[in-house]
Each structure stands twice: as structure tokens, then as C-alpha cells.
Design brief:
Layout: E1 2-10, E2 12-13, E3 25-26, H1 28-31, H2 35-49, H3 51-55, E4 57-66, H4 74-87, E5 89-100, H5 107-116, E6 120-126, H6 130-136, H7 142-155, E7 160-166, H8 173-186, E8 190-195, H9 203-209, H10 218-234, E9 238-241, E10 244-246, H11 253-259, E11 264-267, E12 272-275, E13 278-282, H12 286-294, E14 300-305, H13 308-320, E15 326-327, H14 328-335, H15 339-342, H16 344-352, E16 356-359, E17 362-365, H17 367-371, H18 373-379
Parallel strand pairs: 1-4, 1-11, 2-3, 4-5, 5-6, 6-7, 7-8
Antiparallel strand pairs: 8-10, 9-10, 12-13, 13-14, 15-17, 16-17
Amino acid sequence: MNPLSLYVHIPFCVKKCAYCDFVSHNIGEFEANKGVERYMEALKLELAHYNKILAQSKIMTIYIGGGTPSAIDGALIHDLIQTIRKVAVVDKMAEITIEINPGTLTLEKLNHYLSAGINRVSMGLQTTNESLLMSLGRIHSTNDFITTFNAVKMAGINNISLDLMFGLPNQTLQDIDNALLLIESLKPTHVSAYSLKIEEGTPLYESYAAGKVILPDEGLEREMYHTIEKGLKTLGIEEYELSNFALPGFASKHNLVYWKNEPYLGIGVSSHSKVSCNRFSNISSVNQYIEALEAGNLPIDETVTIDEAEDLFETIILGLRLNRGINMQSIGIKYGIDFLEKYSDAIKNLLNSELIHINEDTIVLTELGRDLANQVFLQFMID
């Protein structure tokens, strides 16, 4: 059977964060008319459409993201995972992750997660600065996060990842140090550290465009990143990808699928999939998504056939995000190319600029290369 990863999008939140441009909606808008339950039933209908793909596959990872999956009834999550197990073979050692936010979790929900086989939790800390949390539109305090983190651990889920943001308006290096101190005390297995990106259409973008929000300059933003990198390393939480750090053995198996350019199936509104040589994405309207599936139709918005040249480029740039880099021989065999010959100019330029170094047959980014990763990726764009 072919290995496959499954992503499930739950587009409901208690409150949308000021920086978020993901497809998510206030859960109260849908609860009144049973919209949440209809959506969860639509997910099952979508799964049924993929019975041929699922029959040939073994699910190695499941990632339930959002939105805030923990905002909905835990029984609905349990029921969905049971349905997945009925229509697909789920590996006994599958990594099953759910995103949760403090203020939305209850003991009852935790029990449903455990019963369903969820064995990994991803939580949004973002920052320990209370005023920054408020300005981001987060609904939790640092104490709320600590309480929720400990509750998850006490319930028996020890594989816990937390999200940390840097480059926030008015954020300081002291804020980063404070977050690292909390991480040291909580001892998560995994940390995802993201620089804030201000996306059009968000409340934060409007404030930024109006001059009400000032971001740290590039130098300070990079210093924040390196402070996080070095601070986590002292705790044994090593960087394995440009934005991700883990204790040994706790790298996210699901996210590694993306970075290794392996197949994944996304279900739910606005989800994306890559299966064989096709990439396809779902419509972004929750109501249209539900209506399409209730009418017996797949809610696909766009399908693109990936040619070999594009797949090769994606394999290179995604692989270079990983600290272990890319193996030129393996890529050469897979795509029938002489890697060194095809990319000789790019490799020469990048070596001279000290953005990469080569260990035998492997190319990895240098520290400078990680800071300037996009410049590295562009070197491998060959017509």
C-alpha cells in the first residue's frame, strides 16, 4: 500500500486572530443552524469520494488543523477519526495531531481525543507578552496556556508542539527571552517559530497600512530568530527545518511529508492535496463546500497537473528547507538528471556566496543561507 498523509481543515474559531488569513469563521455564526454538524458530515462525504485513493493507501499521519479544531465538540472529532479508520487503513504507529488553543479545551474534549487515538497536540503560545497577545487578537493569557499545556500532559499526551511568533509589533528581545524561559519550564517536544507576515485582508494589515503598527527592522527580526535558535538548542530542541525545532525523535512526521514532497490528501474547505502528478484545492466558502458535497459533488476549486520540471524544483527547494539538506545522487536518480551538471552555475554561485556547503553528495544551507533562503531557491529556477 502507498503511504499517504491526511490533512483535515476545521474552519471554526471562537475569535479570528488579527493576523490570520486562513479560512476560518466565528463558530457562533454556524452553531445556531447546525452548521458545524453539517460541515463535519460533509467531511465524511468528501472522504467517501476518495475511496479509490484511500483503498490503495496506508495513512501514516493525520493532521487536524484550522481554524481552531478544539473549538468544536470533541465527540465530532472522535466520530470523524472513527470514520477515517473505517474508510482507510491507518498505520498502527500513525502520528495523529490536533491543533488546540487555550480557552477552548475541556477534560471531556481531551477524553474524546485520547479515545480516538490522537497522540500529538499543537498549541499556539505565540508570545508570553500579555499586551502583545491582546493586540494579536488572541483569546488566552500566558497562564491559560500553561494550564492547558499541563492538562494535556496530565491526560497522557506527551508529544506537544507549541507555536512561537517573532517579529511582532513592539516585540523586544526580552520578550523572546521570556518565552524561552517558559519553554524551558514546560518542556515541549517540538517548537514551531514563525516570523509575523502581515497579509492583506486582515485587521493587522489595515492597521499597518494606516501607520498604526510598526514592525521590528530586519536586523532585529533576524536577531530574534537566532536568539530562539540558540536558546532552543541549549534545551536540546534542535532546528531541523527553517521554522521548526524538535527534541530527538520528535520532528513532525506530517510536516516532513510536505518538505520531502511526498503525497498528501487534504479534506475540508480550502484544503490542498498533492496526489500522483496532480495538485488540487477545495473551494474556500464553507456554505458552498457543504452544498456541493450534499449534492454529491466534489468541492474542488482548481486542479493542476505537475510536470516533472516543476516537481524537481519543488523537491529541491522544499528539501533545502531541512537542515539535513538534499541528496544530489538521490534526486538525480529519481529525475534522470546529472544534478551537478544541470545546476553547475547555481551551485558555483551559491558556494562563492557562502549560502550553501556540500558534504559529499549532500547540499545544505549555511547559516547565512538559511537567512537568505529565498535567494538560494531562486538559483535553482531553470527554464
